[in-house]
């Protein structure tokens, strides 16, 4: 970093009290700084068609480059837990994600990364069976076994999509 600064500036002045791998420097020339401040908007997203958040957070955050969806649990839009098989619960999670993505102006087809959380890995194959019906484009995915999930559910799914 300092070699680049030295080549681009007529004189580089280091602050000796902060000299380290993150040293502060300033130039005495009119060369543009080597860093830029990037300002991005981040808009909270809420969907009336998805299960209400189980805590103090939004359904998603939309930026110009990505939509970061909070984990969805198997609930209906009223917040009632979905009972049934792991496939039915997985479908409920994905329906909630679909509603959130649509509220953000995106879709399931634009998902690029999925994180699935299961309280019992013996449900892995059954969850995959339902999951593969919705994510036919095969986005990147992780599936993690966890000790427990909010409201005592068996599965939670979150994702990242492009707008």
TrEMBL record:
Question: Which InterPro entries has this protein been placed in?
Answer: RidA, RutC-like_sf, YjgF/YER057c/UK114
Molecular function per GO: deaminase activity
Q: Which organism is it from?
A: Neurospora tetraspora
Q: Which family does it belong to?
A: Belongs to the RutC family.
A GO cellular component entry from the record = mitochondrion
- Protein name per UniProt: Endoribonuclease L-PSP-domain-containing protein
Taken from the record, one Pfam family name reads Ribonuc_L-PSP
């Amino acid at each position: 970093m300092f070699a680049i600064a030295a080549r681009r500036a007529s004189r580089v002045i280091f602050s000796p009290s902060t000299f380290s791998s993150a040293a502060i420097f300033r130039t005495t020339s009119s060369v543009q700084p080597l860093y830029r401040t990037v300002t991005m908007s981040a808009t909270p997203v809420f969907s009336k068609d998805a299960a209400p958040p189980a805590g103090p957070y939004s359904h998603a955050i939309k930026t110009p480059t990505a939509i970061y969806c909070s984990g969805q649990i198997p609930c209906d839009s009223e917040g009632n837990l979905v009972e049934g098989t792991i496939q039915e619960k997985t479908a409920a999670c994905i329906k909630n994600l679909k509603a959130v993505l649509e509220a953000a102006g995106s879709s399931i087809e634009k998902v690029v990364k999925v994180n699935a959380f299961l309280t019992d890995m013996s449900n892995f194959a059954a969850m995959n069976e339902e999951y593969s019906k919705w994510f036919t484009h095969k986005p990147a995915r992780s599936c993690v076994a966890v000790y427990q999930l909010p409201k005592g559910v068996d599965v939670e799914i979150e994702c990242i999509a492009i707008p």
